[in-house]
Amino acid sequence: MTGWRAGIAATCLAIAIWQGVIWATGVARFILPPPTLVAQTIWDSRALLAEHALITMSEVLIGFVLGGVLGFISAIGLVASPTARALVRPILVFSQSIPVFALAPILTLWLGFGLGSKIAMALIIIYFPVTSSFFDALMRTNRDWIGLAQVMGAHPARIMWHIRVPAALPGFASGLRLAAVYAPIGAIIGEWVGASKGLGYLMLLANGRAKTDLMFAALIVLAILTVLMHAGVNRLCERFFDRPDEP
Amino acid sequence: MTAPITITGSASIDGTPIFSGLDLTLAPQKWTCLLGASGVGKSTVLRLFAGLTEGVTFDGTLHVPDRVALMAQRDLLLPWLSVFDNVMVGARLRGERPDRDRAAERLAQVGLSDHADKLPAALSGGQRQRVALARTLMEDRDVVLLDEPFSALDALTRAQMQDLTAELLTDRTVLLVTHDPAEAARLGHTITIMTPSGRIDVPAPTTPIPRALNAPEVLHAQTDLFDRLRSPL
To answer: What is the DSSP string of chain B?
Structure first.
């Protein structure tokens, strides 16, 4: 439980610094609102925040699941087929050199202002880390296991499914842990570029009306949801994918 | 199954010759021990018999049944499967229906019935190697290839494992690759030393295996092997 205590202590420290900066510099509250005001705003606007948070979280969760499934399948495909590997890997790496920000307007154009374009953004941003960490883990399968399976007369597909995939699940899990933190970034970018709902939209709206306290409130709600999502994914990964190191 | 199991020829890995002019026959239903210094190609011979030719260029003839069983120095248990499922992993990998009764029998033979539901991580090194033996027995092949399966075990466990393995693999054609002269002296019906210049057959004791560690003929064979390994022709 030291993790929890450290987390609470770190949060208190951050709030103390925040308040300290305001006292020390006397900065105007529409530039940097004090923590108490933001807390007040979170409470007063809870219905509004909840409504928009629900939208953002749906985008994030759907994008996360789709990206996870797609990454899982792609990594297996890339490992199973050397041809696919030779053709697709350069494309994958190249695609990473395109800033996701640049894609957001195009996705909004293609998929509209609704959930679709944000789900696509979340999916695109997590697809590479998930695929890449699962792929690396699959490629690292103990060769001796594969040799033994071959001696036993196993078909390559069965070696994949019964040995390589289970052996690589911890690698898949580390991809998912990254994805849990990245997916909200994708969804928020999507909302900034064009949306009528969601925490990202709310932040832009609040900014436009100089409601800095509401902006901060939305930001903090987003941060809390991301931390919770990461914790949840972490628990699921520990439960299903991780295993203690072998001697 | 009475067809002789032989390998003749030469092999190289990435252009580096591993052995050449080798001519080795495994006596049917006997234990053949293959000794030799590290890097002389013992394991390559075993891998060729096993059909694991990846990376090896082999030039020669090889007579071996389609299906053999393999047991290696590392137990190669799958850490996410229970002991029981590890014993049956061959059937699962071939897409066959696993014979649970026979698996339970094999596990009983190696004395691990009480550990069937545990994960391999909960077992000691010796117990894990016994599970690997049960898995090898489960394959039920006429030809069994043993690649230094006892070398990672402590002395006492090693002696016990040797006894158990010899007892459970009687009447099989066994190739045991080892660098331990004592092990060869205890377990070999035929003992062959592989050297860079060829193969040396060493007379093995004629008593049944597993032989006692301190039997005079075992000690004698062991000293003899030591001498030959130290000063190869």
So the answer is: --S-EEEEEEEEETTEEEEEEEEEEEPTTSEEEEEE-TTSSHHHHHHHHHT--TTEEEEEEEE--S--EEE-SS----TTS-HHHHHTHHHHHHTPPP-HHHHHHHHHHTT-GGGTTS-GGGS-HHHHHHHHHHHHHHH--SEEEEESTTTTS-HHHHHHHHHHHHHHTTTSEEEEE-S-HHHHHHH-SEEEEEETTEEEEEPPP-SPSSPPTT-HHHHHHHHHHHHHHHS--
* Chain A positions with Cβ closer than 8 Å to B: 142, 144-145, 147-155, 158-159, 162-163, 166-167, 243-244, 246-247
pLDDT in tens, A42-97: 999 999 999 999 999 999 999 999 999 999 999 999 999 999 999 988 888 888 88
Is residue B225 domain-shared with residue B150, that is, in the same domain? yes
Q: Is residue B51 part of a domain?
A: yes
Domain boundary among B112, B140, B168: B140
Indicate the fold that domain A45-240 takes in CATH. Answer: MetI-like fold (1.10.3720)
Locate the domains of chain A by residue range.
Answer: 45-240
* pLDDT tens readout for residues B126-181: 999 999 999 999 999 999 999 999 998 898 989 999 999 999 998 899 999 998 99
Same structural domain, B221 and B145: yes
Q: Chain B residues with CB inside 8 Å of A156's CB? A: none
What band does A168 get if pLDDT is binned at 50, 70 and 90? very high
